[in-house]
Amino acid sequence: MTTDAVPLSGPRFQTEPAVLYREMRREHGAVTPVLLDGDVPAWLVLGYRELHQVTGDPVLFSRDSDLWNQWENIPDDWPLLPMIGRKQPSILYTVGERHRERAAMISNALEAVEPSELRRHAERFADELIDAVCGEGAADLVGDYAMLLPVRVLARLYGVPDEEGPALVTALNDMIDGRERAIAGQRHLASAIAQLLAERRARPADDVASRMLADPGGFTDEEIAQDLMVMMAAGHQPTADWIGNSLRLMLTDERFAASLFGGRNSVADAMNEVLWEDTPTQNVAGRWASRDTHLGGRRIRQGDLVLLGLQGANSDPQVRVHGSALTGGNNAHFSFGHGEHRCPFPAQEVAEVIARTGIEVVLDRLPDIDLAVPAESLTRRPSPWLRGLTRLPVRFTPVPAL
């Protein structure tokens, strides 16, 4: 690792990540040396072609975290352990044929979700959340809405009782932010999932957890619990940020002004533009080199940690002219990953239905919605992994609850 590594933390990930990624690319090239919490070294892949290479070769760039050459330097309370765990038997760290079997189990369990039922749940929970604020004439669309909606829908689909949804939101956000509450958040989520699986073993139902338990692949309860935790975390926070970032774009960009009052095409346009320009999942950990290799002109040693710079790759000038207009049909972004470890297609569809329904319900129910603060005062959470707003204050004419 070089001595000019860039810390993967700090306020610029909140304020100007696009500028930061451009500087990294200019100074270090497509593969940048970075430092994680505690000065732990890694490589951040910012090049579109290089990211394609890493995600397309799961043997050379493995998901097996046991390969990491830094484990002896990692303390037990390292706040990034929930994101880069050792011996986690989840699908994230499974490789080869077993990974493909588990991906199929997850896809089958999610594919059985009826699209009309999914949309109905999303609309019901969205309406309940809007009912709580619509008479006030003001709301925070992140804290009062976007951060609460996806996990409520997912909990219902997976089989978790509705009343446990709010505590799951807190636990998931703590875990993903990667700060001092991260490990406590992970423990809460694990205990909620273990309880769900024990109940579904005894009383199967028409839900995702029951379908996973009934899968003929012979998976242990521990494997299924780990995969449900991944599905909950990966399904909730990025979807919440997709809603928040899309609403921010529609409320601050005059191209979308007319569409706030009844247009629908532009919801899809805004959502797609966010996946290119302001993607919720900025950086992903990780892959580990299974042998010495070269990538983007860098010498990568066996066991080095390689981070996937999804937003950096999306804005790579080798494949995109900066500031180019994006058509609604261009989906060649990296926001859902790539290769055999990409987000399963049924999971992408679930996220898209929840996010789109969430945005449409806001526009339907709050007819003259407007930003309540200057656009430049909006701030982001302090995470190098996920990019989302801390608040999105809006005002509107008070309307009655449904």
Features:
alpha+beta; globular; 14 helices; 402 residues; three-stranded antiparallel β-sheet; Cytochrome p450; six-stranded mixed β-sheet; 46% helix
Structural description of this entry:
There is one protein chain. The chain has a single domain, classed as Cytochrome p450, CATH 1.10.630. Helix content is 46%, strand content 10%. The chain has 14 helices and 11 strands. The protein has a 6-stranded mixed sheet with strand order 1-2-3-9-6-4. The chain has a 3-stranded antiparallel sheet with strand order 5-11-10. Strands 7-8 form a two-stranded antiparallel ribbon. The longest helix is centred in the middle third of the chain and has 32 residues, at 221-252. The radius of gyration is 21 Å and the shape is globular.
Quick summary:
With 402 residues, the protein is of the alpha+beta class.
- Strand-and-helix sequence, N→C? EHHEEHEHHEHHHHHHHEEEEHHEE
Please state the overall shape, judged from the principal axes of the Cα atoms: globular
Please give the count of helices.
14
How far apart are the first and last residues' alpha carbons, in Å?
59 Å
